TrEMBL record:
UniProt key word Nucleotide-binding: yes
Keywords of this entry: Amino-acid transport, ATP-binding, Cell inner membrane, Cell membrane, Membrane, Nucleotide-binding, Transmembrane, Transmembrane helix, Transport
Classification via PROSITE patterns: ABC_TRANSPORTER_1, ABC_TRANSPORTER_2
UniProt cross-references to Gene3D superfamilies, sorted A to Z: P-loop containing nucleotide triphosphate hydrolases (3.40.50.300)
GO BP, one annotated term: amino acid transport
Protein's name in the database: ABC superfamily ATP binding cassette transporter ABC and permease protein
Gene: yhcA
Source organism of this protein record: Limosilactobacillus antri DSM 16041
Amino acid sequence: MAFLELHDIRKAYYLDKEAFPVLKGIDLQFSRGEFVSILGESGGGKSTLMNIIGGLDRDFEGQVLVNGQVLDHAKEKQLDDYRRAMVGYIYQSYNLISHLTVLDNVLIALDMTTLSREERRARALKLLDQVGLSEQVHKHPNHLSGGQKQRVAIARALASDPQIIIADEPTGALDSENTQEVLALLDNIAKDGKLVIAVTHSQEVADHGTRIVHLADGKIDGDQRLRPAYPIPAAPTVIKPKQLPATASYRMAFKHLMYNFWRNSLIMLGTAIGIFAVLLFSGLGNGINGYIQDQINSLTNPRSITVLKNPTGKRLTQDQVQSALMQNMAADPQSMVLSNGDFNRLAKLADGASVEKGNMIGGYRLNYGKLQQSGTNMTTWNKSVTASSIKHGHRPGNNEIVLTKQQAIQLAGPRSYRQLIGKQVKLSFNWVNKQGAPVAIEGTVRVAGLSEGASAGTTINYATMQRLLRQHDADARPNFAVFVAKKLSTVESTANQINNLRNGQNERILSAITVGSVLKTVNTYVRLASTILAAIAGISLLVSVLMIIVTMYMSVSERTKEIGILRALGERKKDIRRLFTSESIFIGLFSAILALGIVAVVSLILNHALYGLIKYNIVQLTVGNVIFAVVVAVIISFIAALLPARHAAKLNPIDALAAD
Ligand SMILES: Nc1ncnc2c1ncn2[C@@H]1O[C@H](COP(=O)(O)OP(=O)(O)OP(=O)(O)O)[C@@H](O)[C@H]1O
């Protein structure tokens, strides 16, 4: 039984539905140990026949039998396995992969065998030594002569120990000396018991083989045996094939990335800028949010709830409470008075650490020497105010007041405003007595400190305020309360309870103001700003994605021939797809690392530059942000590569090999 049989092989190419028959019924039988030369005029169909024998062409009629088994050319997977296990190719134009070294070019065929890493390397080096290239193994193909390139191709074709070697014009591009050497190598391969089929135009080359088959007009018109086939060795070495492992694709993708290092660096830089924008804006979002919280918390104790009388009886929003308070405080101060009953009810609420009484006045005047200043709101010092809101001096003790920096500047001038601390100022305001008649209040207080910042306020010692009011026979009953919760987590629910306290007429009696609800409003704006920033970052990320897509498409068209070579070696569509997706994932991953580096430097600079101004690190990246950026980078680079990789995998191996 012949090792390889061709039965009635027919093939036509179609141009606008018109058939151009190239092979018109080929019947041939080949045995191992033969060195067969296929001769014929140009365009006679020799390469077409080789593609069919080599399992690259699936579109033909007739049967190919290997070892008595029909090769089902309808099944692509079976042909992949056949090429991987059985066929080694040698081409006229060598078809080496330019970005791999000589050694790696041979190793790619060995990646699809069950040999261990060391065995693969040892075999590749041995084969390169046999073809006389042991000194050149670390060179890239473009540093070799034509003869040397063809010898690398022979070593690669032999690497996985295939039984059939197909050589399409193997000496076509070589001088006579190299031609002789290559022919001797091919003869040696046949001597090892392999089937060598070489296509040639040259009678001289054909005469070196054991048999010449002549092809003319799509048919065999001569089959001449020059000498007997070589005997087959008793126990041939068998190297078992296996499918390409994923790690081999990753390795190759990485090597390609490194080979085009500078070009890829630019692409990675471009992608990194997109990821950097995402990271920076997330970090800024965190920082601004944290800064605002910090500012508010430093001015106001977050566990405190300011409680006011609700003169409307209805539910009020925080804004309504503020404006109702202002109106009532001016028009009818007594409507805002909190009764002992109110305080008792507050004291009974769960989770209360303390309930404090406070007085708040609407309009007042301050006099220092000849200068006067009027203010709109002053409260007694209470637990909702934190000591850190006082930037100079200290909290108001007995007979003391804390002014805002602005007030101090108006009273003492921008240069010497701080010297106001410790000085006496005259405080005057209008209030009412218990009967509701107006009373003018006047007293002298010492400036204890100055508050500064967005929510800086004027505060006076509670006992001092009480004394001032009583001295003038004014109504000294408290008009606000400060409830401090034990836990931050219950502040909002307690505030709700306070808002829901009702009198006998089922009217709401109190309104609660918490810093949490102020924070909520602020956070809404911060979130809005963050969303806008995220959208900008998203756009730059989209540009990055498009860049990767374009790069990958360019890469596929540049590497079309390589795709053909890999398919001829037995790689599956899946392997080709993975080659490109993994390269893209590497780009994404390295871009993310680069972006992290850039954002680390930029945030360091920004934080350093702004710290002096705001005493806060304005860019704050969390581990979550970093993980998110890396994951997003990997996912988008994978998605970006899907279409180009699919396109690469779908290429017809014969067309890919024919690419320039
Ligand atoms: N993909 C294709 N589409 C259409 N026609 C094709 C295609 N490939 C080959 N042909 C035609 O089929 C014929 C046989 O081509 P083939 O390459 O097999 O010839 P060949 O004997 O190897 O020629 P050469 O010795 O010049 O390489 C030629 O006329 C060629 O133009």
